[in-house]
Amino acid sequence: MAVKVIIPTPLRQYTDKRDSIETTGATVAEALAGLTTQYSALRRHLYNEEGKLRSFVNIYLNDEDIRYLQKDKTPLNDNDVISIVPSIAGGAAFGYRAIEFPA
Amino acid sequence: MELFIKYPMALQLTRAHLEAIADHGARDYPSECCGVLLGNDTGLLKQVRELAAIRNLRQDQALAEELLPLAQPELESERNRFLMDPGELRRIEAEGRRRGLDIIGYYHSHPDHSAQPSEYDREHAWPWVSYVIMKIEAGRAGDYASWVLAEDRSRFESEPIDVVDVQAAPESA
Fold first, then answer.
1. Which of B14, B134, B158, B168 is most buried by its number of CB atoms within 10 A?
2. A63 lies in which domain range?
3. Which residue from B minimizes the CA distance to A66?
């Protein structure tokens, strides 16, 4: 299947500044594999050391989050649009908060 | 000597932008606040044009857990974690793009904690974009700093901030 992958701003430096890339695949996993073969520098930002999608990488197929479909095994149709949508998260270090001194 | 200059070299924002981040941080204290920096990459600078506050989804634990589970929920909450509402984020990105503005970075507060990024910040960071962190101490704005993830994801690098009174007009293409 021929599909389009929408690239978020932080990753466009690895795709020659292009905001969408055409690729092919029968499933979401195959399409993403095609994308990261074409642009290998994307790989470390999308996948962890075990080769799994990072927890803060959301993948939408058309307008649906693939975690509510068949995850990366979700089958594709021609002209589907896959969006890589970053979860933006962070926060302070912790530890000292757990310590409470009596009054 | 090897000379390596990284572009864009600095984040440029106005005093009013910094005041808006401080106000947001104070308002949401003791929770973390978060938001988006909208602007343009001129090649030399990332120029901030507008800020957009975004809801910290950690205030809705059940929904936040579904999107990005916490490793130690007994120690982590909206007081030391933020997660941007993805729906708001997509809407702001689309609206910005219609007006020629990109998301060039994000800001968040560290209540009663330094403006240094944490391990958790690094693990969840995206490349290229600026991460502005402002310390909010006992409800008042403290130090701030901007950070960019290193290419190999191993650390954050400090990013120079250029504070201006008034932002120059956008460069016409």
1. B134
2. 2-98
3. B67
Q: Which two tokens stand for residue B52?
A: 């957009």
Tell me, yes or no, whether A103 lies in a domain. no
Q: A69: distance to nearest CA of chain B, Å?
A: 15
Distance of CA B68 to the CA centre of its chain: 18
pLDDT for B166: 87
Q: Among B86, B104, B121, select the one facing A58 at the smallest CB separation.
A: B86
**Segment B96-155, tens digit of pLDDT:** 989 999 999 999 999 999 999 999 999 999 999 999 999 999 999 999 999 999 989 999
State the CATH architecture for B13-164: 3-Layer(aba) Sandwich (3.40)
Contacts of B102 in chain A (CB under 8 A): 9
Q: Per the structure, how many domains does chain A have?
A: 1
* Chain B (43-82) residues lying within 8 Å, Cβ to Cβ, of chain A: 54, 58, 67-69, 75-76, 79-82
**CATH code of the domain covering residue A37:** 3.10.20.30
Residue contact B103–A87, C-beta within 8 A: no
* Domain extents in chain B: 13-164
- Tell me if B67 and A87 make a contact (CB, 8 A cut-off): yes
Q: Is B121 on the interface with A (CB under 8 A)?
A: yes
